[in-house]
Specification:
The chain is mainly beta. 5% of the residues lie in helices and 58% in strands.
């Protein structure tokens, strides 16, 4: 009996090792990786892994009989288990002379939630040659495969075992739809798997959606694991008002484990054929990317159009330079309207200056050092021309890490820059700013006196504007202080801690005449809560504002004790000038408006209110109010409603007197019972002052479980009196592919807090 049981056990063990069903990624036919229809590659199903034949073997059956060394038979609820693999059948027969296992009825294999069902298995164990009729595959979501997002199933007419590590399937189908809901499926006439090389080959593949073929793949190869493989990406298609219908078919090249490339031919119905190329590389101490696009003979513009761009980062530590690194970043386009004509993304069309930069950087516990050369290509809008920025050739900066000695904190920053411009004043600027601070802090307050000395030297070369070089040396003295009071309040929803946090900031900077010094990179900061506690009204180093002033502010917060959530924060602040400001540009950074009386000038009042008002509503607002003119100079109010059901509403209002008056509304609204699976998407950014739409979006999402589609119409301003209109459509067959132009980036940029339906 022991010999008979051993024979059956050997047969079933061989059966378990040879009958390897395809994993989910295999049945995807590499439309996930080889054809790159979805770059999120699921981990191959554990069902296809060969079991460890050294593990313990267990066999159960109602009856086991046979003739020693000739044949064996197990009948009645036969179960064989080895490790986490289990095989079930009603009858198993083994012919030792032919080395053949027969299972005349249904056979079932299980491993970690996955299942294979088949009929009439015949398998020669040693040769691993045989057939299985009507195999059906079921793949579940498990903790062992976190990247597998969807349950999947498949079936075939026949599965052939063609020797070790080789299987072939005929008339295979695959879908992630529930049984009885074959809204879409992938069909392949013949599918061959070679586990020795981890590759698969498919012939006459097609995707059918609602019974209609939408994509035909006459021949394909794909990997059986997570490795990349050359092949076509998903085709994309869309339309825009400037270029007409757009269709692209990218091809991915897996050149080596550490670098790859993508070639993208794109057809614009109005303009012609564009060829794009992307090359990426990654090493232990470097990475980078090269991009190019070329559109010969643009039929609308009447010229060749192109883009070239490259980025590179290099860690120099392996070259005996620990702490050192280098970087390159360069972009160039053929003309000013390249992005406005050929891109449907506002992030691209809003670009004005394309950088060309080479940088060398050093970092250590003592500080950082950087050297770079920087120039720009400036893209001009004829209706709103801009002045091109200076070329920095070179710029050298350093910043010492704060050092402490006897509670005194030392800081030093420095910069040397050679500014070059074809039409403006040229010259070199040397800047050094050491400072000393003594932070004194307790649990209930702080006082920080600080003294610094800002030294700057200019040497001008090309100068026809009347500017003069020379030095500017300015001491800067400040005293920052604050205190915190707390009390506990009882509400019906629980205890709340209220704080009261007054803060005073004193600043003294003597006046230095800077009217003859050039202004290479300096501009005014915006008058706001962040700015009124700064030492300087300007950024860029060319201007140091004189100051004899005090800033006073008070903040109160309401914090829910049980959760730590800040339910409400309110703040109000004002700056007091004890003498008139003499170093200014436009004066807007001072926050002064209306008629000032008395010896002390008072800035406008700044106020802010924010917080998580409830479980669903949040508020963020800021105001600038002129007490002399008795009106608001600036108002910014934004509120958001968001719940777990996916309902989202953003409300925003922006007002700057004589400049901006805008209302911005966006929403993501599942329609619920009125339209199960449907979600409305919309945004309107409207200029009340100009009475025109600055940016608008309307779209629909529909989620049917195993498939989803998104349709988005988008319009935004690209230049003065110019607009870009586009329609983006995407059909996602979950667990397989995404067809069309991906609108997710557009939705995330336009609807703050947007989440796709299966993430909700």
């Amino acid at each position: 009996m022991r010999t008979l049981a051993g024979a059956c056990c050997t047969a079933l063990s061989a059966l378990a090792g040879a009958q390897q069903a395809p994993s989910q990624s295999e049945l995807d036919l590499a439309l996930q990786e080889a054809l790159k229809l979805d770059r999120q590659i699921p981990t191959p199903g554990t069902l296809v892994q060969r079991p460890d034949k050294r593990g313990a073997r267990e066999l159960w059956a109602t009856e086991i009989e046979g003739i020693n060394q000739k044949r064996a038979s197990a009948k009645g609820r036969v179960r064989f288990r080895q490790g986490d693999m289990e095989v079930r059948a009603e009858q198993v027969e083994y012919d030792a002379e032919q080395d053949l296992v027969r299972i005349p009825g249904t056979v079932e294999m299980r491993r970690e939630g996955d299942r294979i069902l088949g009929e009439s298995l015949q398998l020669k164990i040693e040769q691993e040659v045989g057939t299985l009729a009507n195999p059906r595959f079921y793949f579940s979501k498990t903790a062992a495969r976190p990247s597998q997002r969807y349950e999947a199933r498949g079936e075939a007419r026949e599965m052939r075992f063609e020797g070790a590590d080789h299987e072939r399937f005929f008339d295979t189908r695959y879908t992630t739809c529930k049984p009885g809901e074959d809204d879409w499926y992938l069909k392949v006439s013949e599918l061959a798997l070679d586990r020795a090389t981890n590759t698969g080959t498919g012939y006459h593949g097609r995707i059918e959606f609602m019974g209609t073929p939408i994509l035909y793949l006459p021949y394909m190869t794909f990997p059986l694991n997570n490795e990349r493989k050359s092949g076509f990406l998903a085709p994309t298609f869309g339309s825009s008002s400037k270029s007409g219908l757009e269709i692209s078919l990218p091809y991915y090249l897996n050149l080596a484990p550490h670098y790859d490339a993508t070639l993208t031919p794109k057809l614009f119905s109005r303009r012609g054929m564009q060829l794009g190329a992307e090359f990426r590389y990654l090493g232990r101490d470097l990475f980078g990317q090269l991009d190019s696009e070329y559109l010969p003979g643009d039929r609308v513009a009447g010229r060749d159009r192109y883009l070239v761009a490259g980025r590179h980062y290099q860690n120099l530590a392996p070259w005996s330079l620990p702490g050192w690194s280098a970087a390159l970043n360069a972009q160039k386009v053929s003309d000013d309207n390249y992005f406005r004509d050929l891109s449907t993304k506002i992030a691209n069309t809003a670009q004005t200056n394309l950088p060309r930069e080479a940088a060398l950087n050093y970092g250590s516990p003592f500080g950082s050092f950087g050297a770079r050369v920087l120039a720009f290509q400036t893209l001009q809008d004829p209706a709103q021309p801009v002045v091109a920025p200076y070329r920095l050739a070179p710029q050298i900066t350093f910043q010492a890490q704060p050092a402490r000695w006897n509670r005194v904190e030392f800081n030093t920053v420095g910069e040397y820059t050679d500014f070059m411009h074809p039409t403006l004043v040229n010259g070199r600027r040397l800047l050094l700013y050491p400072s000393f601070a003594l932070p004194l802090a307790t649990s209930y307050g702080f006082v920080t006196p600080k003294v610094g000395y800002h030294a700057t030297r200019y040497d001008l070369t090309r100068n026809t504007t009347g500017f003069e070089g020379g030095s500017r040396n300015v001491p800067i003295v400040s005293l920052d202080s604050g205190i915190t009071f707390e009390r506990t309040l009882a509400f019906a929803t629980g205890a709340v801690t209220q704080t009261l946090e007054p803060r005073l900031f004193f600043l003294y900077v003597p006046f230095r005449d800077q009217s003859k010094l050039p202004r290479f990179t300096t501009s005014e900061t915006d008058f706001s809560f962040a700015q009124i506690f700064n030492e300087n009204l300007f950024i860029g180093g060319d201007r140091i504002s004189d100051a004899k002033q005090m800033t006073a502010a008070v903040t109160t917060r309401f914090i829910q004790d049980a959760t730590g959530i800040e339910r409400l924060r309110a703040a109000i602040g004002q700056r007091y000038y004890f003498r008139p400001q003499q170093v200014t540009l436009t004066g807007s950074a001072l926050g002064l408006s209306g008629l000032q009386t008395g010896d002390i000038s008072r800035s406008d009042l700044l106020a802010a209110v924010s917080g998580q008002l409830s479980d669903h509503w949040t508020l963020d607002s800021g105001f600038q109010y002129s007490t002399s003119d008795r009106n608001f100079k600036k108002s910014n109010v934004s509120a958001r409603y968001q719940d777990l059901g996916g309902r989202l509403l953003n409300l925003s209002y922006r007002f700057t007197r004589d400049s901006i008056h805008q209302a911005d509304i966006s929403t993501q609204m599942p329609l619920g019972r009125a339209g199960p699976g449907w979600t409305l998407l919309a945004r309107s950014n409207y200029s009340i002052r100009d009475r025109k739409l600055l940016e608008g979006l309307v779209g629909l999402e529909y989620n049917h479980g195993c498939w989803e589609f998104r349709l988005v119409a988008h319009r935004f301003t690209t230049a003065a009196q110019q607009y870009s209109n586009s329609v983006q459509f995407q059909l996602e067959l979950k667990g397989l592919s995404k067809l069309g132009i991906n609108p997710l980036e557009t939705l995330r940029q336009n609807i703050a807090g947007y989440r796709r339906s299966d993430e909700r």
